[in-house]
Amino acid sequence: MTALVLGPLLRHVSERSATVWVETDAPCEVRVLSRERGVDAAARTFTLHGHHYALVDVDNLEPGTTVPYEVTLDGETVWPEPRSTYPPSVIRTMAREPETLKIAFGSCRRSPDKANRHGLDALSAYGHVMASGGERPDVLLMVGDQVYADELSDEMRAFIAQRRKPGQEPYDELAEFEDYTYLYRLAWREDPAVRWLLSTVPTYTVFDDHDIRDDWNTSYAWRQQMEATPWWRDRIIGGIGSYWIYQHLGNLSPEERAADLVYKAVLAASENGGDGGEILDEFADRADRDPASARWSYKHDWGGTRLIVVDSRCSRLLTSERRGMLDDEEFRWLDEQCQGDRDHLLIASSLPYLLPRTIHNAENWNEAMAEGAWGQKGAWIAERMRQAADLEHWAAFNASFRLVAEDVLAVARGERGAAPASISFLSGDVHYSYLARVTSPDTRSTISQVVCSPFRNQLHGTIRWANKVAAVPGTAWAFRLLARLARVAPPPLRWRVTEGPWFDNAIATVQLSGRECRVRWRTPRTETELSELRDVQLTG
Question: Which residues form the DUF7800 domain (predicted)?
Fold first, then answer.
């Protein structure tokens, strides 16, 4: 009997369609059924490096309805699992004009491990709360570090040890696509509450560095160092290729996915009895060498809300002459998406756009030094500092920061249609949560930075202490002085942290009702319960 390896994952959902993603242990026909609602959709699996996947598009659904579903493989029911204690998995379509939209989000989740080194899992606790009848979001957004390819659990180490030859590098990191398949299995299958949650809440993702490797694409110098590493080419190809199948494809609408040339080629190879692994590898290699050849960013409109999810990792422009958080083509795309005539604009980026001012100023200064403001020796020192202290957020790409500010301010002033009530950046990465509010210039929109991190990977020791200090008002002046001495212009926005930081594992929910926007952070009190950290009104 064919079995589910991973899934089902409920991915893109619109008013009339939904996409269900699965991995199976053999080629088969996958069906998504709702006998009571007359739903029946099917797709054949396709093969990548010996693994079998399917994305089943369920269409002709009614807006704003809830449809329980099951999954069969070659006619045998495999989901829900026998003796499951969780409610039925459902597809809940988006309403045409939702009265309230709830978007749960967060980042940085270490997989379950027997040692339990990283605290209680906020995503797992959220699943338990949902299963018990608690808050149910319309969307789950995971903004980076869904998996850790370079900080391994004992279970992942045992798996790769079986596959490595004695002395083969890398010793304590993933090496290729096959390693990634097991890492995703540990992340999304081992915890029953998380597996059920992902089967019943539409989930969207974007990668950050640990999905590939710490400090991925931090600078041109970093890329040169990694390119000189013998095992890196297989690693980056496996990381990007696995992201494409396990995360990226589900972010797309059925129409967008059908137009994807790589997806078309992979399906065609499987229809002819082949394996699309080589096609995927060629694409992943090209996407790494030429960022403009692939787009990982995407946007979705739900009633009066637009969500823009920005890839701030793979799309970076890093050459000996220029550096940018996004390449030119990606910036043109982002500029086109930043429009008014809606109630709320959400811009999700794995890396916070607005950091605590001390860190922002430090990264401004470090970038200027690395670019030669204080000579070649200063540039050498700055590059070592950048990699050692992870100084590679939007503030470390100051030209990119200023371009985004121009777009956001144009929307907030009503220069691109009626100004939204709120413009919110949703981010993770930093392993603590906070809210920052823009205080000037005056605009018609409330502009905020909402950070929720981590789901499960708490900071400890010196790093935690340093970030606490950096968030204290009045500590930013020293690095601002250094930035001025390096001839860095003041930022076009002024902002301050008004809530947090909190260093708990956490999950946040942004709730949008009409022109009202509020955000709520919660932390796991037990493995199955959440307690509130803060509930804040952003508008009004």
Answer: 1-91
